Structures are given as C-alpha cells and as structure tokens.
Amino acid sequence: MRTTTLRVIAVTSALAIAAATPVASLAQSMDELAAAAEAEGTLSTIALPHSWCGYGDVIAGFKAKYPNITVNELNPDAGSADELEAVRANKDNTGPQAPDVLDVGFAFGPQAKEEGLTQPHKVATWDTIPDDAKDADGHWYGDYYGVLSFVVNTDLVENVPQDWEDLLKPEYANSVALAGDPRASNQAILAVMAAGLARGGEAGQGSGEAGLEFFKELNEAGNFVPVIGKAGTIAQGATPIVIAWDYNGLAWRDTLAGNPPLEVVVPASGVVAGVYVQAISAYAPQPNAAKLWMEYLYSDEGQLGWLKGYCHPIRFNDLAQSGKIPQELLDALPPAEAYEAAVFPTLDQQGGNKDAVTGGWDSVVGANVQ
To answer: Is there a single domain that holds both residue 254 and residue 160?
Structure first.
C-alpha cells in the first residue's frame, strides 16, 4: 500500500519547495467577497471539461456552496492559447463570452501577465503554494499537475506500449493520437517534449526539435492519427492510443467503465510532469466571482476535489503533512514510483520547447491535428 510519506517526498523533490513568502491579506473578508460575488451573480469559466481533473464535481461543489452564482462554462475543449485569445478578443466585452478566469499551462501564465491579460489576487492559502509554482505578484499560481501517459484501448491493442519508441512499431498503424493540437494545446506541446526527452534531447528547444523528429517518423510510418484524442474517439476506435495526462486517462477509464477497457501507462522514459496555473482575467466582467472561485479552488475542499479527479493538487504537501488526504484517494492514483523519474520543466525550458513545437510542427511533421 502506498503511503502519504512516499508521495510527499516525491512531490517535494520534484517541485523543490522553497520557504513560503508572506501572504498578502485579503482586501475583503470572505463574507464580503462572497456577498460581492453573489451580487455579480455569474462566473464565466473557460476550457474546463468535466472529466478533466474532476472539474465536473469541483464546479458542482462551488455551485452548492454559492447557489446564487451561475457558472457560465465557455468552450470546454479549448486549449491554453485559445483561452488567452478569448481574453484578448473580449477585453471590451462585458457579456457572457468574456472569461473571468483561466486555467492554462505553466508557460502560458507568464505570457499572459506580460501581455497584461491578468490581474493579481493572492488566495488565503498563498503561503502553502510552492514559490517556484507561483508569480510573486499573484498574477498566476500553480493549481495541479500530472504526467504524460499512454491511454490504451486494450480491446484493440493487444500489446500495450511501454515506452515512446514502441509507438513506432508497425502493429500500431493508424493508432496513436495526441489529446490536443500541438500548435495550441499545452498538453500536446509537452507531449512532444516528452518524446524528445526520451530521444535524448535537452529540455527546451532541443527537446522540442527532437520531439518533432519523433512525430515526423510516427506520421511517416502511418501510425499517427491527426485527430484530437478523447474518451469518445478511444471508445469508437478512431484513436486506440492517446497521449494524454494521466489524470485524463484515468477519468476516461472511469467514464467508459470497461466499455472498452482502458490501460493507462506512464512510459519508461521521457516522463514529463506538467503544472497548470490559474489566473484571473484583467478584463473579468465578474472580478469578485473570479476571486471567490480562486478561494474555493485553493481551499482544502477544492484541492481535494482535484485529487479525486486524479490530479496532484499544488497544495498536496501541505494537505498530506496535516493529515487531510484520505488514504483511498492516494490508493486510486498510479504507484508513487511511476512519478519518481518525472521531469518538471522550468518556465524557460517550457518556453524554448513551446517555440520549437509551435513554430516547427507544420513544416516538420505536417499533420493538421483537429
């Protein structure tokens, strides 16, 4: 049986937690913030599929706690780049198409801040968020992480691949897909990085270039399917193998309930962990509802909601050390050993990789993923 201690050690070493910085006091008390948010009456989210990280239950929990706030869910299948574009496109729009909050890949947080697309807010639990997973000014902060894995329909795939090079085998013809467009989706961009690292590429531009060569070979071999993979495409047989975050694969497995059976495999090499971050739009039509949403997400209740969705919440260590994580939630995750070799790319490494992948996918791989 896995223990809390094992996972605390794994996460601590991976994130290299530094001493916490003093938390900025909330400008409003929670009661005042809740009243102001309820007066606004709406929260507009974007890119939050209900199967992603347990968001369906997390949103339901927020609604139950604040029944006077309607949650307007925009474009659940959007990628991180799409989220930033939604803020840009709606900065002069206070209507329902303007998102209040963002959940984007790590590299997209600083980009959004630099463009002036975010506003600062430090949640009450600010001190328990690792320093290297948050902006010092409160413009963005890590929320959860997972590792990239192979999600396999075992009704269609007899020999389940265990590492990246396996995917090039002829038996996987017309079988392998990404869970997003690598020109816009953080999940897909980091999948290319993982393949590149497995090939010996150095994290950053090198991993991006090596990963592009891998996917070029995969495409030329006839194994790559240019379809965005998800539970439905796996079940239909259109994408028998999907490269996706472990938490997405585990959620899809639960959703499909054995029809078909899925196996989620953390590859033997090129294990990349991806931290996602939260932010509030600088142009949020409902800024108080946005702040209240953040307070909920970073409360114990919100963090455990993500863990129920198979994501490691950013406050995992704090919750574990205070004995707040039920053992059954730990037991539902892959073994702690699967995460021991995980690489947590720095912002600079992610930025170099992202530039290589988004700039070179069309010319090197030439597959229009949609």
So the answer is: yes
